[in-house]
Structure formats: structure tokens, C-alpha cells
Amino acid sequence: MIRIRGRLVVLQVLVVSLLVLLSVRLWQVQVVRGKEFVTAAMETRTRDVVVPAVRGQILDSAGRPLVRNRTRLVVSVDRTSLNRMEGNGRSVLQRLAAVLDRRPADLRERIRACGPGVARPCWPGSPYQPIPIDDHVTTREALQILERQEEFPGVTAEVQAVREYPGSTAGAQALGYLQPITQAEMEKRAGSRTVFSGVDLVGRDGLESVYDGALRGVPGLRRVQVDRLGKVIGVERQVPPTSGDTLITSIDAKVQGVAEKALAEAMKSAPRADGAAAVVLDVRTSRVIALASAPTYNPAIWTGGISEKDYQRLLSGKAGKPLVSRAIKGEFAPGSTFKVSSVSAMLKDGYPLHGQYDCPGSFMVGSRPFNNFRGIGLGTMTLHTALVKSCDTIFYRAAYEQWLRDGGLKGKAKIKEPMANMARSFGFGHPTGIDLPGESAGRIPDRRWKKDLWAVTRADNCKRAKSGYPEVAKGDPSRAAFLKQLAYENCVEGYQWRPGDAANFSIGQGDVLVTPLQLAAAYAALVGDGKLRSPRLGWALVRPDGSMVKEIKAPVVRRLPISATERAYIKKALSDVPSDGTAAGAFVGFPMDKVRIGGKTGTAEVYGKADTSWFASFAPTERPRFVVVVMVSQGGMGAETAAPAARKIYEGIYGFTPTGGPAAAALPARRPASEPPMIKRDGTVAR
């Protein structure tokens, strides 16, 4: 009995102690830290939701959409929330997969973070934002998720704007694509005024990248009240988003389509062709009317996540690297299209404009003969005829003479290098500054460049001069012997600017590299007003209500250092090339009486590959409005592949058939648009 009473006393003491402890704890919570917990409770009941703005459209020069938006129901998953759940949210993904008729493994792949060794699909954006996993959701599927939120914590289904490309593959590299913003980017931009939503996409290439800030608009804010399950029970505050600006470009969708088709047909006509590019510029403003590159792809492939197979194909050399714009990033030897720069250098250096020049079949440059095309001599001629008939030996002689005057192999203390300096004045050797990312600079070699290259490559050349090329010798002994001898020469005297280097330079061969866009900008300056401009695709930014934000100008970079008389002389010579020169065969039957075409063919040799085919042209010759440049890698002779493709572009622009008859013209007015289209307050285009 005494033992039982003792136990009861202990129990009573324990109960009293617990009550005292509970009372103390309640006092601490309600009195001492009451305000703190009230604030915390309030914070857990409100959520700030950033509402993404509708991204602005990208239109062509007539107001036709190149990139537009369409709404879709999108299901997104908060990976951070899933990872806090038992089994990393495995049961939630299984239920979600059943609703969406997908495999749970597929959903798990889409929400894993991209990184080294992680195949697509994966999530390249911030791990702290909702991850879209399906953008082809039906209304019924979305309702199943929204009405049973307790079964799908961390899962949302909402209407979002998705990019759509009416032209499919047309201009893909110029337009660019969107990808989720990464956590690193969000942290980098944390101090800026721009607010990013959980589903924000940013431009990764092309116009989408350059004009990303204007196209994205200003996100809105919605402060909502939620219950303990995270379900919204009320809206406390709401700031609507401001839609992004509309970007009007100078691209004409119809001309772009014509250029794309011409390139595709050109590549089919040349069995070894592995890439091509076409540029159409407005001569007077250097605005881009069309910018095409082949092979191409459909940027819609990025929408909703890209598969590993498709991603690798975009980067594959075997597939032709469709992501790369050969128009602005491809660097190729320009061949004879470069002679407009070389003849300008000759005139600047004192060679007579109306002089007579001998065009032998071969000319000795130092101790080595440099031949005309097929070794054919054409007699005495003017510079006009030299351009029309594309005589190489006249340019070899001029380059060799200039090399000698600069001191030959030894060089002088003060050298002129007329051809290299003139090439830079034409815009070669540095980017044009076009409003697209990743533009290549090309290359203009000279004496300094040769020395710098030698300093970098000397050690490897000296090593190869001793060891040779055993890996090459197994399949091609003569090639290996040639490479070993070349390595020895470059080891010992690779710093020297040889006479052959100068001769090759004069006809756009050797180490000279240009991009199709650089060549187009140079020809526009030559046949236009002599001013070299930085080309632009963007023309104007317009608010959703139609009011103008700003017009985008194509700035003047410099003026060509030759006179108007000299420019007119060169233009007149080029005007005879399609009718009486190297491109005559490609323009048989073209109605020159209606629209006369001028231009220059180029055939650039590439070791181990077929020739690069070029045609740089302009029309009409009297008062040029268009410059069209076509390049086909491994396309053969310029007159065989590039020139016929350029002809098809002109036929499309002006509305001619191959026989010269009429057809529907891409530009009925026969000139580029002079003003950007007007956007009405309701967002439609004023016709």
C-alpha cells in the first residue's frame, strides 16, 4: 500500500512538473516571442508570385510574324519541393505520370539538372524555379492536377505563352531561340531592376539574345494568401505585367524564303557541298533583307525541352552544325570576289586607272610560276577587262611589285602593305558589328601576322620537322613528306612574308578569310555611296500599344579610301561580268533588259576539299538597291553553283521565271521597304 502511494506521489509530481513546463513554454511563445511567431505565421500565409510578361513578337519589314506567341497549358514541377518529400517525391511523380500518360522515368529525367555527363533532356535553368515538363497538356489533365492539389504538391498547371515560328526553319540562326535562365544568371542579375519569374526564358542566340531585355517586358506581381497545403485562398495584391516590345526587323519573309530555297537547291546541285550562306542587303542602308545559312533547323525544337539526339545533331559536324550561321560566323577564302579590294589597292598605290596591263598565262613570283586559270594568256587589257575576265596574273604582278617595294623578305623599317591596308578599309579582318552575337572577324594576313603566327607555332613545327607525320605516312607517304618539309621551312623561316603569300593574297587565296556578311557589306559600300556601314537586322522597337520606342540605325563605320570615279569604274566592270564575263553562263536567258545584274564570281581552292563557290552581286546596275552574296562550301566554281543560286534569288525578288517570263515577285515594288510598318493600338499591322 505504501509502495502504491509512493508511485502516485511521483506521478502527481511528474504531472505538475509537465504542467508547469507547458505553462512556461506557452508564456514564452505567447508573451516573450509572441510578435515573432505572429510575424512568422503571417509570412507563411502569403506568397509573392512573379507573373511573367508576354514576350514581344519579332516581325518582318511588312509586319508579318517571324516569331510569335501562342498559349498552351503547361505543367511544371518544383524540384526543391519534391526533394523535401519522402522518396524525393517518387509517389507524386508516379501519380503525375499516370495523369499525363508518361513514364515516371521520363519526368524524372526532365527535372534533373544539366551538367557534365548528363544527357538531354535535363533542366538547364535554376533549380529553385518550377520546371516545365509538359507543354501539350489537355484541359482535362490540367483540371485533374488543380482539383486534387493535395495529391500533387509542388505541381502546377497554368496557361503560358510559347514561342511559335511560322517560317519553320527560315532564318533560324538569325532569330535565335530561348532557354530557361540559369541560377548563375539570376544571381548575376540580382542587383538589376529586372525581376525574373519562375518560368522565365532568356534569348540564347540571334535576335532573341541581342534584344532580350526589350522583348521580355516587365513581369507583374501577385501576392496571394495560402493555406497550410499551399492552396491559394485569396489575392492580397496584384500588379499586372507589361508585355514585351515588338521587334520589327528589316528582313522580308518572302525574300528570306526565296534565299533559303535557293541555298537548298544549290547544295543539292553540288554533291560534295557541306554548307552554304546567302546575304541580301539594302545597298543604301545596309539593312539585312535576308540572311540564310544551310544546313538549318527549326528553332521550335527547343520548346518544351530538347532530346539528347536532337541536341547532338545541332552540334554535329556530320550534320553540318545547323546551329552555326555561316553567313556571319563562317570564314572562307573569298577567291576572285576579293579582287575589288585588290584593284582598289592598286589604284591607291598609283597604278593608272585607264592603263594597259599584260595578262600572260603565267607569271614568275620570285622563283615560282603562278598561273592564270588553266594557264590561259589573255593578252593586253584594261583593269575593266581584268575584272570581267578575272585575269589573275595582273594581280600577281602588282602584289609582287608591291612586296618588292616593301623590302621583300627583309622588309623595310616603314612598309606600306597597300593590299592588306585596303582590305581592312573594306571592312575585312574585323567584325561588321551586326546586331547578332558571335560574329567572326575573318582574317587579313600581313607581315606582322606572319611573325605572330610563327612565334606561336614554331615549337610544334620544329618538333614535326624532326619527327615527321608518321600517322599520315601510313595512308599517304607523299603527303607526309610534304608536311615534314613544310614544317621544316616554317620552323626555320616561318616568320617571313614570302612573295607567294603576297601573290595569293591579291586573288583572295592563301590565308585570307572573310565571312559572307563582310563581303556583302563591302560590295554595298562599293556600289553605293562609298560609306561602309554596320549592317542591322533590327529596325524598330514598338510598344504593345503601337507607340514607337526607338528606331535602330545602321551606323556608318568608315568611307572607302577611293574616289567616286574609281568606284564607278569598278562598278561598271562588275556590271559586265554576268553578261560578258565569268558568270555569263549562269545568267543565260535572264531579262537583263529589265533588270541588269552586276557581280563577281569567286572560286577559292581549299586543300583536301572541293573549291568554295562564291558570287557577290548587285542590282540594278544603274542605281543599285540590292546586294546579294552567295557562298557554297565545296560547291565548285563560282559560276557553277553560287551564281545560279544568286540568279534564283533575283528571280524571286523581281518576279521572273527561269525563262525570263513574269511570276509573283517577293517585292512587287522592286525595292526594299523604306519605312517600318505601323502597328495599331490593338496590335494589328496597318496595311
Describe the structure.
The mean pLDDT is 90. Strands 2, 3, 4, 5, 10, 18 and 19 form a seven-stranded mixed β-sheet that branches. With 687 residues, the chain is α+β, with helices and mostly antiparallel strands. The protein is 37% helix and 19% strand. It is built from 24 helices and 25 strands.
Briefly summarize what is shown.
This protein is of the alpha+beta class and 687 residues long. It is built from 24 helices and 25 strands.
Protein traits:
single chain; 687 residues; alpha+beta; seven-stranded mixed beta sheet; five-stranded antiparallel beta sheet; 24 helices; 37% helix; elongated
Instruction: Tell me the total number of β-strands.
Output: 25
**Shape designation:** elongated
N-end to C-end Cα span: 106 Å
Radius of gyration: 34 Å
* Main sheet characteristics: 7 strands, mixed
Question: How many H/I helical runs?
Answer: 24
Mean pLDDT: 90
Structural class: alpha+beta
Spans with pLDDT under 50 lasting ≥5 residues? none
Considering DSSP H and I runs of 4 or more, what fraction of the residues is helical? 25-40%
Beta strand %:
15-25%
